Amino acid sequence: MRWDRLFDDLEAQASAEWEAERAALASESERVRLSRVSLRDRLLVLRDAQAQVGAHLTGGGGVEGRVVAVGADWFAVDRGPSSVSIVPLAGLTGLRMPHADLLHSAAGHAGQALRERLDLGFVLRDLARRRVPVLVELVGGDSLTGTVDRAGADHFDLALHDLDTPRHPSAVTGFRMVPFGALAQLVVAAGDSGL
After folding, report:
1. Which residues of 124-161 are buried (b: 16+ CB within 10 A; e: fewer)?
2. Average pLDDT estimate for 31-37
3. In which domain of life is the source organism classified (predicted)?
4. Which of 81, 163, 182, 186 has fewest C-beta within 10 Å?
5. What are the phi and psi torsion angles at 74 (to 5°)?
6. Strand partners, 55
7. Prediction pTM value
């Protein structure tokens, strides 16, 4: 009888040690998995969940809304019925969201659709092709309005004019070459975004 208790005791100790070791391995495995999840992966989960976020931008600006698209180096936030903001990942200083969405986004995103590989230059070239008027907010706090004329690998050319005026040579007041690194966000009318 005493031997039975001894063996039961040893078995309980071994089981507890096994559970502790398994929990430690699972915890380490989760840390390794999380180390491979990128900000972009988390944004894709937030997009799929149609999560509301508050994006804090370089230069102190921000945008609130639902994540609607994610590309290779940018994401888009639906600001409501009137406009969409295109935000370069490099211009992001933080995201605010409910805790449940924060935890859910850590799951990461598997797979990659073609749209998710499109870079900021591709989006800007599309806006240039369609002659969409835009509001450009720069990292330094300045704002510009006009039409993207062309987009290169790391910059774009903007024809400056009022947002409510079509791009016509007589309406253009100047031109500006804008490096992608200076872009905090680009605001497009919701129907014109193409996202």
Report:
1. bbbbbeeebbbbbbbbeeeebbbbbbebeeebbbbbbb
2. 61
3. Bacteria
4. 81
5. -155, 165
6. 63, 95
7. 0.78
* Residue 166 CB coordination number (10 Å): 10
Q: Which CA distances in Å does 86 have to 36, 101, 182? A: 25, 21, 13
pLDDT tens by residue, 142-155: 999 999 999 999 99
Q: What percent of the chain has pLDDT over 90?
A: 55
Residue owning tokens 């680009």: 186
- Rounded to whole angstroms, the Cα distance separating 65 from 85 reads 9
Averaged pLDDT of the chain: 85
Q: Taking residues 55-79, what's their average pLDDT?
A: 92
Task: Copy the structure tokens of residue 125.
Answer: 């070239």
**End-to-end Cα distance, the chain:** 74
Q: What distance in Å separates the CA atoms of residue 62 and residue 139, rounded to the nearest whole number?
A: 11
The Cβ-side half-sphere exposure at 96, using a 13 Å CA radius, reads: 8
**Structure token pair of residue 55:** 């994006």
Whole-number Å distance between alpha carbons of 69 and 92? 15
Cα 33 to Cα 26, 29, 105, 106, 108: the distances in Å are 10, 6, 13, 10, 9
Cβ pair 19, 82 in contact under 8 A: no
